[in-house]
Amino acid sequence: MSLESWLLAKATKIQLRRVMRCRRRALSTDQQQTAGDTLSTHLLRLPGLAGGQRFAGYLANDGEIDPMPALMKLIGRGRQCFLPIIAPGRRPKLLFGAFDSNSLFAANRYGIPEPQVGANEQLKASELDWLFLPLVAFDRSGNRLGMGGGFYDATLEVLRHRRYWMRPRLVGLAHEFQCVDRLDIDNWDVPLHGIVTESGYHSYRE
């Protein structure tokens, strides 16, 4: 194990978030664009992807790797694509609104744009076929470290209680340098099927 890996393994979640977010933001515009384009190539080759109809991603922020090139290609292939919408209420949960190149957006309370769709048009995560999640760090077992707001954990909580979990397929997206040897996980963490970076697809369970 390198010294850097050892230090990251000893870091608290707060420290690890700080390090990884700084690294992401340090990437140049060209580096981000190249990473997003390469990510798109890997995403569109995922096993089973062609059978899906409803895909959700996110608007890249804070140096996150960008799924939009892949999402726009999926829209061009006749698929429906969705973005997160913060659900009303005290619990930090997400719903998902469809978008395309003509959609209107409005900023949520964090300043992140959300598609403007009616409440009856917003989907639950369980109504999606594939969900591409952002992350701050991941480990070699496929565990994910998020921003700490708990939005995805609360949104996907129902999946942990399913005996047979069919959908959505959960795939984390990240830059390859966001991988660490090991993350401490909590009992509310939902396991991912895999993680895609600019280097390729890391599969953890089928």
| CATH topology name | Rossmann fold
- The order of strands across the largest sheet is 3-2-1-6-9-11-12
End-to-end separation:
29 Å
Total domains: 1
Sheet with most strands:
7 strands, mixed
What is the CATH C level class, in words?
Alpha Beta
CA gyration radius, whole angstroms: 16 Å
CATH homology group: NagB/RpiA/CoA transferase-like
Reading the helices and strands in chain order gives HHHEHEEEEEEEHHEEEE
Number of helices: 6
What is the correct CATH architecture?
A: 3-Layer(aba) Sandwich
Which parts are unreliable, with pLDDT below 50 for 5 consecutive residues or more?
none
Percent helix among the residues? 25-40%
Comma- or semicolon-separated keywords:
Rossmann fold, three-stranded mixed sheet, 23% strand, globular, 206 residues, FTHF_cligase-like_sf, ATP-binding, 6 helices, FTHF_cligase, seven-stranded mixed sheet, alpha/beta
Q: What does this protein look like?
A:
The longest helix has 15 residues, at 29-43. Helix 3 (29-43) crosses helix 4 (68-76). The chain has 6 helices and 12 strands. It is 26% helix and 23% strand. The chain is globular. By secondary structure, the protein is of the alpha/beta class. It has a single domain (3-203), classed as Rossmann fold, CATH 3.40.50.10420. The strands form 3 sheets. The chain has a 7-stranded mixed beta sheet with strand order 3-2-1-6-9-11-12. The mean pLDDT is 89.
